[in-house]
Write a structure and sequence with these properties.
single chain; 404 residues; Thermophilic metalloprotease-like; eight-stranded antiparallel β-sheet; five-stranded antiparallel β-sheet; globular
């Protein structure tokens, strides 16, 4: 199948520069000659994958290219696979992960709704089976031995689902990633520095709890002990969010995702989640309600919050729905955005040495554990207030801007 190319060769060269900056920035320790980096890509992103492969070889890294399943292959897998096939782990996967130093993923889906008729429990079973491998990568990242980044490459399907022309969709990617600048890396360096100042301010506050208020949401979260705000770290291109993995046990109230979401070949819209004692107790959705309900029963942690995030609209040039979580969770628009992720937390929001984070330590601190990590986005005008340990309350975010 021939795919349209939404980026010029010059723009792809710039994209490659930004992705390699992201990969190097995301890893604690610098890469060295002979390190192993996987290059995963969807079929439509082959032109960018070919360019990046050469760059990785030039960098004296061992590049391991892997094309992902096509929509037809993915549907056949979930539709036809037995239980044994769903949880099967190919020989060599664990060995590769135990030696892996980095990964780049080029997201370029040919379909976003091809799994709508598949039993969501089968998708969940496959995710749960691969969870131990993801945990090994997290451990390598905590040790500074692994870093990752990812991006989106424009496709006709993404444009169609976002209700944009292919040309406009491509322009949104170009704009969001600063590929329309002569030197995109200078822009990313600026954002990295300015976001660093905000993170420093947030981490200087002794926050006991956070309250989000908007037209559809009224949510309280507890950042928890030994936490730090992180973000704009190179992991995602683009990424403008600043976030924390809260103590899931302190979540209560209502979160409303006014922005639609595509996940695992399914479409959901207008998701409303009600929390009590840290867990979802009630779910409604304008579309895809049954899928949401099945997702949050994937495992014990799937109905809990693993991330709370805010995006400052002064950083993000994303101003339209993109039908892609990577862009939608970084939406700037008129009021910025706040999103939560149901499921797994990020251990790099731990303020101590991540190498000391055992499973027992994570449990004691309220870091959530799950095979799920699903970002749900609220773009409404909102106010975020923080109650400090001393008893004072301050507004930390309003009308899409941090108040530092």
């Amino acid at each position: 199948m021939k795919h349209r190319q939404g980026l010029t060769t010059e723009q792809m060269e710039k994209y490659a520069d930004v992705l390699l900056w992201g990969l190097r920035t995301a890893r604690t320790l610098p890469f060295k000659s002979g390190d192993i980096v996987t290059l995963r890509f969807d079929q439509a992103a082959l032109p960018l994958a070919e360019l990046l492969y050469g760059r990785l070889v030039d960098s004296k890294l061992h590049a391991v290219p892997r094309m992902t399943l096509t929509p037809r292959m993915e549907f056949d897998f979930y539709d036809k696979a037995s239980r044994g096939q769903l949880i099967f782990q190919p020989p060599g996967d664990r060995e590769l992960i135990d030696s892996l130093n980095g990964s780049i993923y080029l997201h370029a889906p040919g379909s976003l709704t091809h799994l709508a008729s598949v039993d969501a429990k089968k998708i969940g079973a496959a995710l749960v089976a691969r969870k131990p491998l993801r945990e090994r990568l997290v451990k390598r990242e905590e040790e500074g031995l692994y870093g990752w980044t990812l991006c989106t490459y424009p496709t006709e399907e993404l444009a169609r689902q976002a209700r944009l022309s292919f040309a406009e969709y491509s322009r949104q990617i170009i704009k969001a990633c600063f590929l329309d600048h002569e030197n995109p890396l200078s822009q990313w360096t600026r954002v990295y520095k300015e976001a660093g100042a905000i993170k420093k301010w947030l981490n200087s506050l002794d926050i006991q709890s956070i309250h989000l208020e908007s037209a559809g949401a009224d949510l309280s979260i507890t950042p928890g002990k030994m936490r730090k705000w992180i973000g704009v770290s190179g992991h995602n291109i683009p990424s403008f969010e600043i976030f924390v993995s809260p103590d899931w046990r302190g979540t209560r109230g209502v979160f409303y995702a006014d922005q639609p979401s595509f996940r695992s070949g399914n479409y959901v819209k207008g998701v409303r989640l009600e929390f009590e004692k840290g867990s979802v107790v009630n779910v409604t959705a304008e579309e895809g309600e049954e899928f949401v309900k099945k997702q949050i029963t994937m495992d014990r942690g799937a109905a809990r919050v693993g991330e709370f995030s805010l995006t400052d609209r002064r950083f993000s040039r994303i101003d339209t729905f993109m039908a892609d979580t990577l862009f939608d969770e970084n939406y700037g628009g008129r009021y910025g955005n706040s999103h939560i992720a149901l499921g797994s937390s990020y251990s790099d929001t731990y303020s101590g040495d991540p190498r000391e984070l055992t499973k027992a330590r994570k449990r004691a601190l309220g870091f959530n554990d799950s095979a799920l990590h699903w970002d749900l986005v609220n773009t409404e005008d909102k106010r975020i207030t923080a109650k400090l340990t001393g008893g004072d309350s301050i507004t930390i975010y309003e009308r899409g801007i941090f108040n530092c």
